[in-house]
Design brief:
The complex is a heterodimer of chains A (169) and B (276). By secondary structure, chain A is an all-alpha fold. Chain A has one domain. Chain A has seven helices and no strands. The longest helix of chain B is centred in the first third of the chain and has 21 residues. Classes of the chains: A mainly alpha (169), B alpha+beta (276).
């Protein structure tokens, strides 16, 4: 349990830094900006208490926000998907044979489960993020386009990182 | 009462969610509330030191570009210097020195944080209150207008970049001397929009857009961009003009923060006019 917590702790800081120092500078004509940092929320253990899940989501969102002076924006979207997470897990189907130390990831849950689970949360995150960011009905087209491109890039990155750092079972 | 607490405790997941979302929304809706708080000073110090270290590493990769940019600017300034101009007439004019008061003071700052991918982009500068930076100062790069300082802490400051939905800069098309407003519609970080140019004047692609000097923030005649595409909707009285920013917002390194020394006086004066 301790080791598991240590991994999440390191991941928290590494993902914030990668997000704000590298990924936030990726930019194709203003579209296609991935939010890899929510990978942290996706990977938190199944048995994490609800209040801790929400607080960690708040902290990582706040961390990303404070680097781009967009206080509240990423925080709101990340807390929202943290709230949706238990519901999505239930919907995606709980682990088939529950052994107590399964983690949400491709290694334990299989590609299809993890992809569906990630897709719902990433889409929700991106949609809320860009809607809140622009907050203008006139820009609905660009909001949807950003949501789509951002989600595809984020999902692709998550899958790549997931395979790169997969532990052999 | 006890039942209410029991109820909240039972649904603590939902209520904590609600509290955190409301806090985020307050931050979004009232950014100045956050900036006045002690919390913002702490986060600025932390993000500032991380970004300083990072820009110290990455700035080496753009040294060549940056040198070319500065050399170009030097050449432009040399051209304006009186020594490189030939006097046309023989009658010379005496001017009292006091009639040439300095209006703008330039401070050099380094860009340590910058984004172009968001709807509202901000630039972090490595100078703050300690170095005389204040709110509402202009930020210019050697290539042109970059933004306005919006919040300042002890050692760092945040500038609102041109790439922001709250940016409105008074500018003019130099050739025909027509005033308009520069805004950014999101999307492409190298293209801005110029509004409020009346549709009866002739605007050409390639026309230069520069600051008007009417905002009390930007000096007059600083380059903003060059006209690319011109549209006018049926029945509209004004053009929608898309133009290319002269400053490359994605590769900003060294910028000038410009203080208008007469700003208070100008604002005081315009206040009198409004009061009339």
């Amino acid at each position: 349990m301790n080791k598991l917590f240590g991994r999440d702790f390191v991941r928290f800081f590494v993902l914030i830094l990668v997000q704000v120092l590298v990924l936030d500078h990726i930019n194709l004509h203003g579209y296609a900006n991935p939010s890899l940092y929510i990978y942290f929320i996706l990977l938190l253990p199944f048995e994490i208490p609800g209040f801790l899940l929400l607080l960690l989501a708040f902290l990582i969102g706040f961390g990303v926000d404070s680097f781009s002076n967009s206080i509240g924006l990423h925080t709101f979207a990340t807390v929202l998907i943290a709230y949706l997470r238990p519901w999505v897990i239930r919907l995606a189907g709980p682990p088939a044979e529950y052994e107590g130390n399964l983690k949400p990831g491709i290694a334990d849950m299989g590609f299809r489960w993890f992809f569906a689970y990630s897709m719902v949360l990433v889409l929700a995150h991106q949609l809320v993020l860009y809607t809140l960011e622009s907050f203008r009905l006139a820009e609905i087209g660009s909001i949807l386009l950003k949501t789509l491109t951002g989600s595809i890039l984020t999902l692709a990155l998550i899958v790549v990182v997931e395979y790169l750092f997969m532990r052999k079972r | 009462m006890r039942h209410i607490f029991a109820f909240i405790w039972k649904h603590n997941f939902f209520f904590l969610f609600l509290v955190l979302e409301v806090v985020s929304l307050i931050f979004i809706a009232n950014r100045s509330f956050y900036h006045r708080s002690v919390l913002s000073n702490g986060t600025d110090r932390f993000t500032g030191s991380v970004l300083t270290t990072w820009s110290g590493i990455t700035s080496y990769f753009s040294l060549k570009q940056e040198n070319i940019r500065l050399a170009n600017e030097n050449a432009r300034l040399q051209r304006i210097l009186t020594q490189s101009q030939i006097t046309k007439d023989t009658t010379s004019l005496m001017v009292a020195d006091t009639s040439y008061n300095q209006q703008y003071r330039y401070t050099v700052a380094k860009v340590i944080g910058n984004s172009t991918s968001r709807r509202d982009n901000y630039i972090m500068l490595n100078k703050g209150l300690k170095h005389g930076i204040r709110r509402d100062m202009a930020v210019l790069s050697p290539d042109g207008v970059v933004g306005t300082v919006v919040s300042v802490s002890e050692n760092f400051s945040w500038a609102m970049s041109l790439l922001n939905k709250h940016t409105r800069i008074s500018a003019r098309i130099a050739r025909i001397n027509q005033m308009g407003t520069v805004v950014w519609d999101g999307g492409n970080p190298s293209v801005g929009t110029l509004q409020d140019i009346p549709a009866h004047v002739k605007v050409l692609p390639g026309d230069t857009i520069s600051s008007s000097g009417f905002s009390h923030i930007f000096p007059e005649g600083i380059m903003v961009g060059t006209v690319e595409e011109i549209y006018v909707e049926e029945g509209a009285h004004f053009y929608t003009i898309y133009f290319r920013f002269s400053a490359d917002m994605n590769s900003l390194r060294n910028v000038y923060v410009v203080k208008n020394l007469f700003r208070d006086e100008q604002i005081e004066l315009s206040k009198d006019v409004i009061d009339e």
